[in-house]
Design brief:
The protein is mainly beta. The chain has five domains: about 200 residues, Galactose-binding domain-like (Jelly Rolls, Sandwich), CATH 2.60.120; about 90 residues, Immunoglobulin-like; about 260 residues, Alpha-Beta Barrel (TIM Barrel), CATH 3.20.20.80; about 90 residues, Sandwich (Immunoglobulin-like), CATH 2.60.40; about 280 residues, Beta-galactosidase, Chain A, domain 5 (Distorted Sandwich). It contains ten helices and 62 strands. Strands 51, 52, 53, 54, 55, 56, 57, 58, 59, 60, 61 and 62 form a twelve-stranded antiparallel sheet that branches. Strands 31-30-29-28-27-34-33-32 form an eight-stranded parallel sheet. Strand 22 and strand 23 form a beta hairpin. Helix 1 runs parallel beside helix 2. It is globular and about 110 Å long. The termini are far apart. The model has no long low-confidence stretch (mean pLDDT about 95). Bound molecules: beta-D-galactopyranose (GAL) and magnesium ion (MG). Magnesium ion binds next to loops.
Amino acid sequence: MKYHEDTQTLHVGTLSPHAYFVPFRAEQRVSDERADSELFELLNGEWDFDYYESVFDLPENFTDRSEDPPKGSIAVPSNWQLKGYDKPQYTNVRYPIPFDPPYVPDENPVGLYRRKYAYHADGLKRHLVFEGVDSCLYLYVNGNFVGYSQVSHCISEFDVTAFLKEGENEIACAVLKYCDGTYLEDQDKWRMSGIFRDVYMLSRAEGGVEDYTVTTKISADEKTAVVSVKVKTEQGCSAVIYAPNGDKIAEGDTDGAGIFSADVKDPQLWNAENPVLYRLEIFCAGEVISENVGIREISIEDGVVKINHTPIKFRGVNRHDSYPDTGFYAPVEKMKKDLELMKSLNVNAVRTSHYPNAPEFYQLCDKMGFYVVDEADIETHGCADVYNTFEWKDYNGIALIAGDKRFEKAIADRHERLVKRDINRPSVVIWSLGNESGYGDNFRKSAKFVRSLDSTRPVHYESRQKLDDGNDRDLDFVSVMYWDTDYVKFYPESEKEAYGRPLMLCEYCHAMGNGPGDLEDYWQEIYANANVCGGFVWEWCDHGIYTGKTDDGREKYFYGGDFGEVVHDGNFCMDGLVYPDRTLHTGAMEMKNVYRPIRASKNDGGFTFENKLAFTHISSENGWECRYVVRRDTKIICEGKISIDIKPMCAQTADIALPEMADGHITVDFDYYKNGENVGFDQIELCNVKREHIPNKNGCTLTENSREYIVSSDNMTVSVSKRSGMISQIEKNGVKLLEKPARLNMFRAPTDNDITAKNDWFKVYLDKAKIKLYSLSAEENCRENKTVKITAELSLGYAVYEPMARVKLTYEFFGGEFSLSAEVDIHEKLKFLPRFGVRFFTAKQLDGIEYAGYGENESYIDKHRSCKFGRYVSDVHSQHEDYIRPQENGSHFGTEYVKIFSSSAQLEVLSDMDFSFNFSPYTQEALTNAKHNWELEEGESNVLCVDYKMSGVGSNSCGPELKEKYRLSEKHFAFTFFIR
Ligand code: GAL
Ligand code: MG
């Protein structure tokens, strides 16, 4: 076994790469289910399995059962780390092994897979196909070496016919954890091994189809199209083409060059919105291949990306093959569910970050309608660390391998395998050369090679850092990750060397934890600039690994470090739009509405509705519907339907009868439905007259003891601590509402996106700020009804530095309710605060909640597009958004009032200005300290935080810093809450 440390020997005994297909017997009825083919035999299932910690531990005659009987078994496909052998390791950028190509460690674990295979000679060949094996395999049949192959996410196909004997045969497969390919597979993912995709045997006719390429060409007026297929085989073939309705529209033989072409009149063109498929059947050597054909073209004109000559935008996500239970194994049902969810979230494009997915993924995309950026299995990100060993020089070191001759062949191989396998997929509209591997001659050459293999699709690659003086003109896009919205706004002016290339945000809006907070801002710019073809949110799912339940029944997901890894990147793998079980994060719902197909705005007289789709005529006849509701102060005043009829990329206007706009908070919601499913909404504020709360002045009395001032009225007694100036108790109708005194609060449990900001916060001990009370006085106002005023002057500080804030607090008690006003000066040196407000530790029995604000999802100043302003009733537990790494969550932006209640008591906070609040069973300390949601403990009280302001969440975990406009960076401010 020496090929796995040899960069020049990548495959031994394999068939050359070709288009993915599974033939049927010519006499069989073809279908889209390959399992229906009599020539297809799935070899998934339980295989015998032995695990060795090192390739050096493999027994002498490991292919011989009698000498080395198997000791265990394993499911194929699977990752052995999820089946009790070895442990998963999560690393993002850094290589899990010493960088020493072509060598890999001697402690190189091996999985020895063995199974029986029954063969009866029938004149057909047998091709053994592995769709994905990490990292490489040595294949043996009946003890004889058949071949070797690497490239984890590509097909390895072996013609094993000559190795088979009549009756029972023995297949043995030694899979190694590391090979020289490992240096090219440094994607940010769990590092796991094994046969992780389907394995099957194909019975193939001698002289059958080896490969074929389908191309479609559309005339300028779209009145005709030419569908052609070029077949590689040693004999003649015939072909038939069926229209989407099943009618046969062409048939004939391939010519001397193996080509069959047909003109299609009035073609129905494929696009992601309307994925119409024609069907092609190729007959050859007693086999028939059935292929779905989408007639479509992709082009770039003046920096604008077009499908079928129509400009489009990619509303994309990045997706890994990753599941909490099956790891890298992506069964069709799971992929389908992912795609259905994406559809329901208005996603129209997927980047297969960062390797080719299972072949069936693309067939689903063809049928369901997704544009796919198909990426090669290449990432060498760890080179950046290698280059900068011990000391940071620059990032260009990422390109170490990009220019290393030893890897030229392997990079081209990976590109060839990508293009050849997926060339017939209409959903694939762009080839991507890989991810984060820098640029160099290996890529320059290979980009040209990719073009020579396929001239119909543009070529994408983001990683343009280089260690040489060459250029990157081979690339058709300027592609960026995580650049801020200004970069998008000023493109292409800022990108002079772009030469009219479109801009793609191949990763943006890092969806880690509570976020992303900047989706809508990006789309404002993307819609405004024709040269920006859209973006792909990083990323689809959280990569938690399911490890069972805690004693009290909570599901345990592990992330980096939880398996005891030495080198790991913690929870950076938990950065998806959906939880591992595919429950939506609120960020996914935010994305859904930002990606909505219709956008409404107010015009002078009525409203304008824009159709954001490129090909779909939005009209009631096509199953679309627009319903509206007008509310004043959250109460419905009228509702109805608008008849919509909007051509693609066009707009229509509509009027609705509106009420008087003189007072109140008046909103109109437009909700859009396609075939009864809600696909998004707009909420437009029509009037928001500043409200003014006039408190009831029922009168109250003031008493005091050595520790507290006590203000009482008929049903309410409030105590103010003489030590802190804070409210220490609120008692209503004999029920004590607080478990402990209220606190001023400047901290939040850091979100993943607070990754840099939190360092400043912890540095000054923002989380630990204590009150220093300078003065406290109470005065009774005996005129009118008796009111009481208590004034406190205090500061908040901890140690080392000057106090972080100085505050003048004023309480005014009216009887039955009181106000809390603060005038705040924040230390000039504090950049921004996560929040400023008051924390009430409320009695557990008050677990109901009602509020008027942005709900019902959590909402922040920069993340509330899945929310409507409205009145919501809920309970404390449903307010908690259960991020697997706990963090700030559940805030509500734009709030007018919040009430918490039990059957016998209620506490309400309201204000003349909009504020934010959270109501949680967990303290921010508990959320900060717990590493996993399943470790969270509820406190003795619930916590109601009412905030003058809560900073936005942004996407700084990998993206730009939180924008100034979303920060609480004011140094002097004042606010008043009324409490009753
Ligand atoms: C990007 C990379 C992704 C992922 C992301 C951080 O730089 O392409 O694979 O690592 O950062 O989550
Ligand atoms: Mg990376």
